[in-house]
Amino acid sequence: MTQLTDGPYDDFDPVYLPDEQHIVFSTTRGHTYVRCMPPTNAFVLARCDRTGKSMYFISRNNEPDYLPSVMNDGRLIFTRWEYTDKPLWRAQKLWTMNPDGTQETTFWGNQSVWPDLLKDARSIPNSQRVMFTGSAHHNWFSGSVGIIDPNEGLNFPEGLRKVTADVEWPECGNGPVDPVESSRYHRSGNYSGYYSPYPLSERDFLVSASRNGKFVLYLMDTDGNRELVYEGVHNIFHAIPVRARVRPPLIPDRVAWPTREQKLTPQQGVIFSANVYEGAPTELNGKASFLRVMNIDPKTYTYWHKRPYISTGPVVSIVQSEGVKRILGTVPIESDGSVSFYAPPGMALHFQLLDDQHRALHTMRSFTGVMPGETRGCLGCHESHSRSPEPYAKNAIALTKSPKAITPPPWSDLTVSYDRYVQPVLDQYCGKCHQGDGEAKKDLDLTRRPGFLMFDEPYVTLTGKPTWGAPYQKPEKTPPGWGIAGMLMVEAYATTDPAAYKTPAPMTALSYKSRLIELCSNGKHYDVRVDPVNLQRLMVWVDAMCPYLGEEEVRAMPDPVFQGVDWLSVRPLIRSAPVIARPGPIE
Hints:
Blueprint: E1 11-16, E2 22-33, E3 41-49, E4 56-57, E5 65-70, E6 76-81, E7 92-97, E8 105-108, E9 117-123, E10 130-135, E11 144-148, E12 160-162, E13 194-199, E14 204-211, E15 214-221, E16 226-230, E17 269-273, E18 290-296, E19 325-332, E20 339-343, E21 349-354, E22 360-363, E23 375-377, H1 418-421, H2 423-429, H3 431-434, E24 449-452, E25 455-457, H4 459-463, H5 515-521, H6 532-543, H7 551-555
Parallel strand pairs: 17-23
Antiparallel strand pairs: 1-2, 2-3, 3-4, 5-6, 6-7, 7-8, 9-10, 10-11, 11-12, 13-14, 14-15, 15-16, 17-20, 18-19, 18-21, 21-22, 24-25
């Protein structure tokens, strides 16, 4: 036994890569915390050589990327936990990437409720299908065994087959339909859950099954036949056959890995699309003038000792468990819908289509990104955001030119907050009537004052105080100004509502339909017309799902008093929380 890594962080879930030179593993070296939950370290994927050296991040995630395995075609498949503008409940699905971190793409289920969490994914031999454990957001350990065939579809129920039909998907239950792998399946006993299946063929697999409160090892087939392989004194997990498997093909490394000297200035990547309207509803065609590029900063800060509202703190939003939102800027879209631009590597990027007034027409409720030097195509605004471009891509206008640089907005404070982006505009343009002795104050008070928990008014009124479950009030009883910002009510969906995870129809929400933006721009409300720059700031705030705090507000908070947890070797910080360079070399 040889120890390969050390230090105050956790390194786990290692897998060898087909090149025989590198290992991919999950790690807490990103110094990030899960946005919800009691303060909990998040882990991301990194790779190193076989000696544990030359270590680099290959994840762009804040929430965990975990349980990687090598597929038959040489790609990595893993569970990615993300809730970019989505509720936190059902957002742990299967993704793939090349072993160098390039071409990260959804494998299945990123807009699905059932099953809740897909993990333990392994390729079935001689097949494009994958076997997995379907578990849950809280009951995350065991569940029911399933199979995914992405050629049949990318979201529930297409492409999904349940193997162990005797156990429902934990927490979310079975869906409106429950496709099964075998109509001949029989339960052969009473089992409460299954864990870490290892497929041996299209029919046979090893699996740990919970029987009488203890996990024992079975050889099973998809009809439910099973033979007990081993029952120990304690639980039996993670069975792997000690037998050579066919070596997956080697996918060439295409990353310009930065040196330590290049850590803060790695080579940019390029993202292009031949047609941003591909796969989107036809009513969107021709309306987009700009592509907005945004980022959620990795959450390296935490109170640790307290958990106000729904987040670990500092709480960034009343709308969802959120990280700091950063606006990188915009890129012009060509007349044929094509776009090509240089993208910063190692960052979680998500996009919005804007009209000529910079209002959001359509939004991406997920994220993508590039590694240093990577060029990747994006098909368009559709359920799978990282598919190959169509053959006509070579004729696209944007691809006949050099990629564009992202144009930053005409202001310098790039992280979005209520205090900087909204309240000063309300004070300047609305305060005369809605603050102080203004006659409209009794209808809508826009004075900054204490509100709900740590959220001041009028922020709570403008957002409508989203909460888990149904919206707060019936429309006919809605007070003046309630919810006029018009963002997506991210945490206001029921936990098994599929709409919570799907891309909303274009031009139905955000700044394009926002009553706040309308009142501030059309001149019909007492001739109020906010100046163009401040109006853009208001629109960015709405389109960013109305964050309460940005980096400036978070970094103004003192570091928390450490409670002296003996086993915690990395102290929780806020003001002096680190900024971790990705994908630069890990020190």
